Amino acid sequence: MELVLAADPMCSWCYGFGKQMELLLERRPDASLKIVLGGLRAGATDVLDDAGKQFRLRHWAKVEEASGVSFNREGLLARTGFVYDTEPVCRAVVTARILRPEADLLKVFRAFQHAFYVGALDTTNSLVLAEVGSRALEELGHPVSVDEFLETYKKQSTIDEAATDFATSRVMGVSSFPTLFLKKDGTLRRVGAGYAHVDELEKHLAAMAA
Predict the structure, then answer these.
(1) Is the Cβ–Cβ distance between 34 and 168 less than 8 Å?
(2) Which end of the chain is less enclosed by CB atoms within 10 A, N or C?
(3) Which pLDDT does position 10 carry in this prediction?
(4) Under CATH, which number does the domain 2-209 receive?
(5) Which residues have CB under 8 Å from 47's CB, separation 6+?
(6) Averaged over 69-92, what is the pLDDT?
(7) What is the spatial distance between Cα 208 and Cα 176, in angstroms, rounded to a whole number?
(8) The organism sits in which domain of life (predicted)?
């Protein structure tokens, strides 16, 4: 079974969905997963103001209620001059994929989510991203130095590959994140869009596989 997940590490519903996705893969050990980075706010230049913070806090409350994940609200409120650009963190996931294609990319993806939503780290800062990515890969048994991660992250080819992911998600018809697909007979079939519990995903997959 081949699954394709379109998602963005700085999408709060994707953060809430992460555990359900891990549970699904535990139940389906025969399944492979490809992650297409969404670029939810790639290239954004607007600074996160108080209204933007309150907007996100309302969303976070809904995600927390639905999924049980925790958020560092104080970390968000304390941010000053923060530009909510998701291209850097998406590119960091792509960097990990390039450097260690054999690593569990979902766990790397979730490490970046945790860094942003719980650690309140600046996931638009290249050095921060390299440190998080290097640590995540080392914990998975695929060590990469911070310097090597940073070098690959800054390459034009990595920037281009991230942009290709963003374009691919649009071609796939993704209008919200996360969106999960089943690839069957060379065709992508939508399993679900938005947050869903693992039991619901299983139900949909069973019907589609049949």
Answers:
(1) no
(2) C
(3) 96
(4) 3.40.30.10
(5) 81, 82, 83
(6) 96
(7) 21
(8) Bacteria
Side-by-side strand order, sheet with 32-37: 32-37, 2-7, 179-184, 187-193
Calculate the alpha carbon distances from 59 to 53, 148, 175 in Å: 10, 36, 17
Q: Where are the domains of the chain?
A: 2-209
Of 169, 195, 143, which is closest to residue 42 (Cα–Cα)? 169
User: What are phi and psi for residue 143, nearest 5 degrees?
Assistant: -60, 140
CB 12 within 8 A of CB 56: yes
Residue 146 tokens read as 């911070």
Summarize pLDDT for 147-190 with one digit per residue, the tens. Answer: 999 999 999 999 999 999 999 999 999 989 999 999 988 899 99
From residue 191, alpha-carbon distances to 5, 24, 45 in Å are 10, 12, 33
Confidence class for position 193, pLDDT limits 50, 70, 90? confident
What pTM did the predictor assign?
A: 0.95
User: Are residues 7 and 38 in contact, defined by beta-carbon separation less than 8 angstroms?
Assistant: yes
Tokens 């081949």 label which residue?
Answer: 2
pLDDT score for 209? 75
Distance CA 15, CA 127 (A): 22
